[in-house]
Amino acid sequence: MSPAEAGEPDRMYVLAAAGPFPWQPLVRSLAAHAVPGLETVEVTPSGAVLTRLWPAPGGPVLAQIGIGAPDGVSVSLNGGRQENDAGCLGAVRSWLDLDADTHAVDTALAGFPRLAPLVERYPGLRIPGSVDGFETAVLTVLGQQVSLAAARTFAARLVAAYGTAGPGGLRTFPAPGELAAVAPADLQAAVRITGARAGSIHALAEAAAGGLELGRHSDWQAVRPALLALPGIGPWTADYLEVRAAGDRDAFIPGDLVLRRALGVATAKEASRLAEDWRPWRAYALFHLWTEAAYDIVPAPA
């Protein structure tokens, strides 16, 4: 019997968002990165339902998150124990950035000509966070220098090969120790990636299994150099994880090609210099620019 089947039945909750909540860009971003077998994102014109197995004491809980209201989200939890729900709900709030200080962010960024129209279009824009720092790190490495479609394919193979089956036809993401126990050559064959990429993931798994913590409460001044010391992990990956896994709202990814194009600059140094005045909200500026480039919603003709 699965953990969810052995636990308590559906419990429904509503999580209010602080300030305005433009859900469309958030859903488009999450849907673009959704890994088959790990999660599903069902999108409709009026919203979306995100389903995945959520980490919880005693085993994963099947979570269904409804997004489409302008003031928050609904959450259905199936399995596990109700006394553990508060932890799951807090993690969902963090993942969807529901507690963002939208007034402070929008007020600050609206003062810059490049960002003002973006803030006007999506006041209260949120940054998708991380369900699990190790999961996010592995998926980020798999997505290096390939298309989103290729990254999802690689990730789906990894989850199918090494994840644990659960309710809803979904699987959990393998734990660091589980991946660390897989030989790089076997990982390469199962996921069908290069030997170098398999070596990077194996090294990351060994580091995480050995105590490298990649969550919001980790010491990222120590985590960053540890990440950069691993094979195949460079500044872009470390910067990205500071935004997503660490939740640093002033983190920035100056080397990102889409960002540099959006800013009309050629180098990471120029992007960093231009963004200096956006502190301490550079991550929100980054997601506004990414939204404009990739996740904007084009209104249907009347």
General description of the model:
By secondary structure, the protein is an alpha+beta fold. Among the domains are: 3-99, 2-Layer Sandwich (TATA-Binding Protein), CATH 3.30.310; 133-244, Hypothetical protein, domain 2 (Endonuclease III, domain 1, Orthogonal Bundle). It contains 15 helices and 7 strands. The chain has helices spanning 3-6, 23-33, 85-95, 102-109, 116-121, 133-142, 148-162, 176-180, 184-191, 195-209, 220-228, 235-244, 257-263, 268-275, 282-295, and strands spanning 11-16, 39-44, 47-54, 61-69, 72-78, 164-165, 171-172. The strands form 2 sheets. A 5-stranded antiparallel β-sheet has the order 1-5-4-3-2. A two-stranded antiparallel ribbon has the order 6-7. Helix 6 (133-142) runs antiparallel to helix 12 (235-244). The protein is globular and about 50 Å long. The model is unreliable at 1-6 and 298-302 (pLDDT under 50). It catalyses: Hydrolysis of alkylated DNA, releasing 3-methyladenine, 3-methylguanine, 7-methylguanine and 7-methyladenine. Keywords: DNA damage, DNA repair. It holds the Pfam family HhH-GPD.
